[in-house]
Amino acid sequence: MPRPPDTNIGVQVKRIRLMLVLLLALANASAYSAKLITCAAPGVNVYSYEAEDGDLACQAVGSTLAFMKSMGFHVDTRFTIELVDHPLRLHGSEVTGTYDSRHLYIEVPNFSQAQRVAGRHAPFGMFMSHEIWQSFIAHEVAHAVAQANFRLAKPGLAAHEYIAYVVQLATLPKETSEELLERFDNSPFRHERQINRVFLELDPEVFAVKAYRHYLAQPDPSEFFQRLLNRNLSSPR
Ligand SMILES: [Zn+2]
Predict the structure, then answer these.
(1) What is the pTM of this model?
(2) Which of 16, 23, 44, 126 is found 20 to 30 A from 153 (Cα to Cα)?
């Protein structure tokens, strides 16, 4: 005997629901298969699908924290890094990493995704290498450490990015940072008023290079970092 039509619909709805549950389970399965790696730095965890990426990320964390410590930062910040297997976007543009300051959570595309990113836009015009990829991690870690070191109620974006980009370029191997600098003829920031959002939004890579050259020109860069952490930058004229 054929079933009354309403029961048929009920069965179909159940089937659709079951399919949705299965699809959701499949979508989540990939997130759960990332392996948790505990870095040597206390309180730093990395989620990675590939063991090699995880090791390289912990290595990047180690050299970033060592550099920042040498510059007078307290580096006992705890945070988590997830090496994601998809492109990252922020405010409509593709980015090489994100830092969620509320949850102390960093996301960086994994190395194979980073190679794809470079195919669309080579960061700083450089060939994608492990070192360049590790510098994305250094940048986001610098944001996390800086956040814990600011003594300002509302640190400005330009100050945050100055720190993150300087740390990113300063932790590159010397030959790599030299090769990168050769690609840009931009002069260093001459005055702290130039370290502003306008420059940053105009071209973040040029901002990065100008910041790094400004840092290199400092007689005592740790003093300038402290200045950024303790007082707001003068406003641009
Ligand atoms: Zn940044």
Answers:
(1) 0.85
(2) 44
Task: Give the chain's count of helices (H) and strands (E).
Answer: 9, 7
- How remote is the CA of residue 10 from the centroid of ligand 1, in Å? 51
Domains in the chain, CATH or no CATH each: 35-230 (1.10.390)
Both structure tokens of 69: 């410590």
Q: What is the CA radius of gyration of the chain?
A: 22
pLDDT of 24 above 90: no
Residue 117 to residue 200: CA distance in whole angstroms: 21
Distance 199 CA to ligand 1 centre (A): 14
β-partners of residue 83 are 108
User: Which residues touch 135 (CB under 8 Å, ≥6 apart)?
Assistant: 60, 168, 169, 171, 172
DSSP state of 3: P
DSSP state of 172: S
CB neighbour list of residue 128: distance below 8 Å, 6 or more residues apart: 114, 115, 117, 118, 122
Q: 140: burial class by Cβ within 10 Å (0-12, 13-18, 19+)? A: buried
Interval between CA 170 and ligand 1 midpoint (Å):
15
DSSP for 191-234 reads SGGGSSHHHHHH-HHHHHHHHHHHHHT-SSHHHHHHHHHHSPPP
Report the percent of the chain where pLDDT is more than 70. 86
Find the length of the chain. 237
Q: How remote is the CA of residue 8 from the centroid of ligand 1, in Å?
A: 55
Please identify which residue in the block is written with the tokens 């997830």. Answer: 82
Q: Closest by alpha carbon to 81, among 140, 160, 123?
A: 140
